[in-house]
Amino acid sequence: MFVSGCTGVDPATMTVADGIEAQCAAALATIAAALAEAGAGFDDVVRVRYILTDAADFEACWPQLRAAFGVSRPAATMIVAGLIDPKMLIEIEVTARIDPGSK
C-alpha cells in the first residue's frame, strides 16, 4: 500500500497547521487514517520518505516519528525540497506491506 502527499493540512478544514511539530502530527494522523482504512497500521510500514523544507526541522519531528515508526523501523529517506504551498513544512509518504489474509 502506498500513502503519499501527507502534509500538515487538516483534511477536514483544509487549513495548514502552525509549526513543524503540529504539521508532523497532522501528516502522521492522515497516514494513520489511511492505513487503518486498509486494515493496517504503522507497524506494517516498510518504507518512509520525509520531505522537509528545512533539514533543521527534522530534529523537532523525531520524537513523533520514533513513536510512530519505532516498532517497524522502516527504510527511510529524508529529502529537503520546496513544497507546493510555502506554508507547508513537511510531507510524509509511506509504503506498507499488507498481507490480505491476515487483515
Task: List the defining traits of the structure above.
103 residues, alpha+beta, four-stranded mixed β-sheet, two-stranded antiparallel ribbon, 2 helices, 6 strands
Give the topology:
Layout (H helix, E strand, L loop, with lengths): L1 E6 L1 E2 L4 E2 L3 H18 L7 E8 L5 H12 L5 E6 L9 E7 L7
Parallel strand pairs: 4-5
Antiparallel strand pairs: 1-6, 2-3, 4-6
Could you explain how this protein is built, in words?
- Helices cover 29% and strands 30% of the residues.
- The chain has helices spanning 20-37, 58-69; strands at residues 2-7, 9-10, 15-16, 45-52, 75-80, 90-96.
- Strand 2 and strand 3 form a beta hairpin.
- Helix 1 (20-37) packs parallel to helix 2.
- The radius of gyration is 13 Å and the shape is globular.
- It starts with a strand and ends in a 7-residue tail after the last strand.
Brief summary of the model shown:
With 103 residues, the chain is an alpha+beta fold. It has helices at residues 20-37, 58-69; strands at residues 2-7, 9-10, 15-16, 45-52, 75-80, 90-96.
Radius of gyration: 13 Å
Major sheet characteristics:
4 strands, mixed
Mean pLDDT: 94
Shape, please? globular
